[in-house]
Design brief:
Elements: E1 5-8, E2 11-16, E3 24-25, E4 39-40, E5 47-51, E6 54-58, H1 65-83, E7 88-91, E8 95-97, E9 117-118, E10 135-137, E11 142-145, H2 152-173, E12 188-192, E13 195-198, H3 209-227, H4 239-247, H5 251-260
Antiparallel strand pairs: 1-11, 2-3, 2-6, 2-7, 4-5, 5-6, 8-10, 9-12, 11-13, 12-13
Helix pairs in contact: 1-3, 2-3, 2-4, 2-5, 4-5
Length: 267
């Protein structure tokens, strides 16, 4: 099989640890770094940045599951230590309703600065909009790196396969239902110089070692399905169902697809 490198740039929220009721706190001005200039943690690719009111981090591309899990836990522990003196901690939740006082910075109102696309229509996704202007969401984007994915059609097929192997099980594993008001529709992707970024998942898979390893293994299953020529994810009988199941968060249909395609939800 072709060697796959996996990266990620998940987002998390900060919470006050002293409040009687845990309240989300904006990360703006507390973490440093930006999309254009992430703040390095070390010389090998671990970095942090502020993204809207969330904390975002990235890791060096991982070739095996141990490297993947070690890098992710290293950065999360680093962020915990960064914010501990401020009476804060990280909270791995896919969506939060922020109080007005935490959204008074112009950066807190920036959404979808860089466009992403839909693998099924190949059109640009619309900018996010939610009925509640105080809703913020956190993604768990996974980056696939391989020379084969520099071909546009192969990259798009990888995203469709990721919907099957990652997106469908996530409907059952991810308890959050609010994030898809803003982000996380089926087939959401960006082309990258090294391959492709899958943007459908929330950050739910960060929570435990088991879910982090699940994400790594399912990403490999998706990529291997593409390079081996198994095109179940492109079958016209199932593709609209896969897409609709993710977009509508249809747990009953997700259960059927998990059985039909022998998908993993063991975490």
């Amino acid at each position: 099989m072709e060697k796959l490198l996996l990266g990620c740039d998940p987002e998390m929220f900060l919470h006050s640890v002293d409040a009687k009721i845990a309240m989300p706190v904006s990360a703006i001005g507390l973490i440093g770094g930006s999309k254009e200039e992430p703040k390095p943690i070390d010389a090998i690719g671990h970095a942090v940045q502020e993204d809207n009111v969330a904390v975002e981090f990235c890791i060096p591309p991982a070739s095996d599951v141990l490297q993947w899990d070690t890098s992710i836990t290293f950065v999360m522990d680093h962020i915990k230590e960064m914010v501990k003196p401020l009476g804060l901690t990280i909270n791995i939740s896919a969506s939060e309703i922020f109080p007005d006082t935490e959204l008074d910075n112009p950066k807190a109102k920036e959404f979808g600065c860089d466009p992403d696309f839909n693998a099924y229509t190949l059109e640009m996704n619309p900018k996010p909009y939610a009925d509640n202007p105080n809703l913020r969401s956190a993604g768990g984007h996974i980056h696939f790196g391989n020379d084969l994915l520099k071909d546009y059609t192969t990259a798009v097929n990888c995203i469709k396969a990721a919907d099957l192997f990652l997106g469908i099980p996530s409907v059952l594993l991810d308890a959050d239902t609010r994030r898809r008001e803003l982000y996380g529709k089926a087939g959401c992707f960006r082309i990258k110089p090294y391959g492709v970024e899958y943007r459908t998942l929330s950050n739910f898979w960060l929570k435990t070692e088991a879910t982090r390893k699940w994400a790594f293994e399912q990403a490999h299953r998706a990529f291997n399905a593409v390079v081996s020529g198994h095109r179940l994810f492109e079958d016209p009988r199932f593709m609209p169902i896969i897409r609709r199941t993710i977009d509508q968060n249809d747990k009953e249909m997700a259960k059927k697809l998990v059985v039909m395609f022998d998908l993993s939800t063991e975490v």
